[in-house]
Write a structure and sequence with these properties.
Blueprint (H helix, E strand, L loop, with lengths): L1 E7 L8 H11 L5 E6 L2 E4 L3 H6 L7 E7 L3 H13 L9
Length: 92
């Protein structure tokens, strides 16, 4: 069975390099096959280049999908990362 969750990108800069790298790093910690969808385009959540190629901007609605033994926890974790605005270290 596949777990899915639809989320809206919260970060004002979208899924740019740093948050995308953190997202991919987190995805690599899961055994499930993970995909992120934007409209008709899809990317492997474990590939930084694939995720960046989607050009995901602030406010974009995406679907996170997982298929595997830890699919529920993977979808919840990755979706939460996209829904939360990334805190810039300089502003902390």
């Amino acid at each position: 069975m596949t777990a899915t969750r639809t989320v809206t990108i919260a970060d004002p800069l979208g899924l740019h390099a740093r948050p995308a790298a953190e997202f991919v790093s987190a995805a690599r910690g899961y055994q499930s096959d993970l995909v992120i969808r934007v409209g008709d385009a899809t990317a492997n959540c474990k590939s930084l280049l694939s995720v960046l190629k989607l050009g995901i901007a602030h406010g974009t609605v995406v679907v996170v999908e997982a298929d595997g033994e830890d699919e529920d926890s993977a979808v919840e974790d990755l979706a939460a990362r996209l829904e939360n605005e990334v805190q810039d270290a300089a502003s902390s």
